[in-house]
Amino acid sequence: MLELGNRPNNSSMKDLGILDGTAHWNLTPDELVDITLSSEGAVRTSSGAIAVSTGEFTGRSPKDRFIVKDNITTNQVWWGNINLPFEKEKFDQLYIKMINYFEGKEFYVRDCFLCADRRYRLNVRVVNEYAWSNLFVHNMTLGPDPKELKFFEPDWLVLNAPGFRADAPTDGTRQHNFTIIDFERKIILIGGSAYTGEIKKSIFSALNFILPVHYNVLPMHCSANIGSGGDTALFFGLSGTGKTTLSADPDRKLIGDDEHGWTPDNTIFNFEGGCYAKTIDLSPEKEPEIFHAIREGALLENVGFHSGTNDVNYSDRSKTENTRVSYPLNHISNAVHPSLGQRPKNVFFLTCDAYGVLPPIAKLNPAQAAFHFISGYTAKVAGTEAGITEPVITFSACFGAPFMPLHPIRYAKMIATKIEDASANVWLVNTGWTGGPYGTGTRMNLPHTRALIKAALEGKLDNVPYHPHDVFGIAMPEHCPGVPSEILNPRNTWANKEAYDHQAFELANAFMKNFEKFAGQASADIMAGAPLTKELS
Ligand code: ATP
Ligand code: MN
Fold first, then answer.
1. DSSP letter string over 193-258?
2. Which end of the chain, N or C, is less packed with Cβ atoms under 10 Å?
3. Which residues are CB-contacts of 379 (< 8 A; sequence separation ≥ 6)?
4. 245, 321, 429: which to mutate for ligand 1, most atoms within 8 A of CB?
5. Contacts of 523 (CB under 8 A, 6+ apart)
6. Using CA atoms, how far apart are residues 94 and 173, in angstroms rounded to an integer?
7. Ligand 1 shell residues, CB under 6 Å
8. Is 384's pLDDT higher than 60?
């Protein structure tokens, strides 16, 4: 076993059972980039970033994400079609197979930690088959300084082998790829998929169990930033709703773009050390912070190029609609370091409503806030897939159900208490369609969304008149600086008002149908935040 690079004292891959091969420990980003360019088929783009293809998978595979059912998880995890159980014995068998897979290979080890609030620091050792995956881990996590690295001891281990394929019938997986979290052994196994989001979101899922259960910290699928006066804002939302885009704001300091904790003493902290932004149709005019962060050290995934050049063509969707870039937080000029904030003053629930029903911004009362948090609504358009023209309705509890091992009501109760104690304003922001549903209307103008959020943050919506939405009951402001008043009530933007009313009730009915599974646990205070329903012919 050859062990090169920067290795903590008393650490060896032999401890895992890998006896032969070459382990590169904690290489610098430059070293990883060189290897990636020379032997992994990556391309250096004209802005200095590198670009790779992730192969078969260009997104997460939620049906292949398992949790080992053991003494720790059996009675705590909310089992179902999101949190899929996995047998201990099968896990042990796969672990050994993966160790054998690394045997004799050249691979990359990274020692890092998660959680910017050091009281909750989680040390993780990640073993990657590819150098570029190791660069992703470097970009997205926090790094021990050289002295800390010497004495680094991992709490968790992640084995990431995209080239390893499980044999579903004998290994207990659904198919050849898998992500499996074992809370007892503190090991995550990722095989068969090179999509880097699997690494990020599996560690996130582990934290979403550990933090509330052991530390009474609320974990959140949200971005966060701070105003010049020190006020913190949170932006919750499912994929594609605008967490990363809207938290990158030249007038506010970025805490983080995706994963945060809210502590009992009201500190907001980022779990990660980097951002993972979507790059489809990225432009320097609309999203300057993100565009300019894509430079040396950044890792682009699945983008295309203008022919004959190394200039990225951000509108190229030939590999996927989900083109991505990871970069460390210090690529954003106004990021705070360390990534901490205080008791939030404003909380935004972002939804990309492709039905064009929800208002561009509305204020929620506590009941509505709880109802919408548990519902976690968005409706996406299914990208460029052939034949799919209708929006796909999604309810994902806590705006992040795929990553939440506990019952949603547990997180919901925590956030309701915290929002009340902080006296935070809660806003619902529709970053999706206006003027009609997908196909008729248009995507909400990004400068308008930014202006609405800015007005909310600056208190400019505190003293304007509001009126309640007919079906959802949420309070719509009648004016907002920088935004035409006509668009503030979505009904006004539809040519056919009856069609709007019908669509609004259809959406409300879908909310209520989804909520049936929580009705047993949801109190009357929460149900007071539900929309009206109507039987439709
Ligand atoms: P993920 O959880 O997958 O990281 P996210 O919530 O961070 O998703 P973003 O990366 O911010 O989502 O994606 C929002 C996308 O929608 C961006 O590509 C952005 O350019 C686009 N967009 C278009 N119009 C708007 C709008 N009005 N508000 C926000 N985003 C918009
Ligand atoms: Mn994001």
1. ---THHHHHHHHHHHHHHHHHHH-PEEEEEEEEE-TTS-EEEEEESTTSSHHHHH--TTSEEEESS
2. C
3. 351, 352, 353, 354, 355, 391, 392, 393, 394, 432
4. 245
5. none
6. 10
7. 237, 239-246, 258, 277-278, 280, 287, 431, 443-444, 446, 449
8. no
Question: Minimal CA–CA distance to 35: which of 5, 58, 56?
Answer: 5
pLDDT of residue 381: 79
Is the pLDDT at 386 greater than 70? The verdict is no
pTM given for the model: 0.97
Give the pLDDT of residue 469: 98
CA-angle at 451, arms to 445 and 457, nearest 5°: 140
Q: Which residues contact 107 (CB under 8 A, 6 or more apart)?
A: 21, 22, 23, 24, 127, 128, 129
Per-residue pLDDT, 521: 86
Cβ neighbourhood burial of 269 (10 Å; 0-12, 13-18, 19+): buried
Cα-based distances in Å from 96 to 166, 171, 508: 12, 11, 49
User: How far is CA 298 from its chain centroid?
Assistant: 18
How high is the mean pLDDT of the chain? 96
- Given CA atoms 40, 52, 293, 310 in this order, what sign does their dihedral have? positive
In this prediction, residues 296-321 reach a mean pLDDT of: 97
SS3 530: coil
* 101 pLDDT above the threshold of 90: yes
Catalytic residue numbers read 60, 201, 221, 239, 243-244, 258, 324
Rounded CA-CA distance 186/282 in Å is 38
* Residues forming beta bridges with residue 55, ordered by sequence position: none
The CA 521 to ligand 1 mean position distance, Å, reads 32
Q: Whose CA is nearest to atom 9 of ligand 1?
A: 242
- The residue type found at 110 is R
Q: Which ligand is nearest to the CA of 278?
A: 1
| DSSP assignment of 425-445 | EEEEEE-SEESSSTTTSEEPP
With contact defined as beta carbons under 8 Å apart, do 312 and 51 qualify?
A: yes
Single-letter amino acid code for the residue at 468: P
Alpha helices, DSSP H, located in 233-349: 243-247, 288-293
